[in-house]
Amino acid sequence: MTESIDARLKCLHCDRETDHTITYAGPYLNKIRCKECGVEIALDRKRIMETYASDALERVLSKPQRMTEELRGDLTAFLGSLPVRILTKPYRVAKEIVDVVVDPANDENDEKDG
Ligand SMILES: [Zn+2]
To answer: 3 alpha carbon to ligand 1 midpoint, in Å?
Structure first.
């Protein structure tokens, strides 16, 4: 069962606060999507916990009863802590922690081959 929460977070791609849709699958955070640029970060909780091994993260990744300012700050800090040059680095690098999906329909800077 999935559930979505809207929150303003700092988008790594827009480099400013934008509206995000945070989706929880069951009790855990599943993905975060920026409504402005369409960048979607799919989080693999198991991989993240293996990498960061932090109790604080467990809390960030767990579905909240409600979106508090504190959690919002934690989420923003978490996003900022990701190796998120991933957004500008080869996809393979991003795959190590998260899956970043850019919706081409919302990407005005459509890259061309060659
Ligand atoms: Zn964005």
So the answer is: 21
How far apart are the CA of 21 and the centre of ligand 1, in A?
11
> In sequence order, what are the residues at sequence separation of 6 or more whose Cβ sits closer than 8 angstroms to the Cβ of residue 85?
93
Q: pLDDT by residue (tens digit) across 11-57? A: 877 889 999 999 999 888 988 999 998 888 888 777 777 777 777 78
* Contact predicate 91/100, CB 8 Å: yes
How many domains would you assign to the chain? 1
- Ligand 1 mean position to 110 CA, how many Å? 15
pLDDT in tens, 58-97: 888 899 888 899 889 888 888 877 765 445 444 444 555 5
Q: Are the CB atoms for 96 and 88 separated by under 8 Å?
A: no
Q: 9 C-alpha to center of ligand 1: Å? A: 9
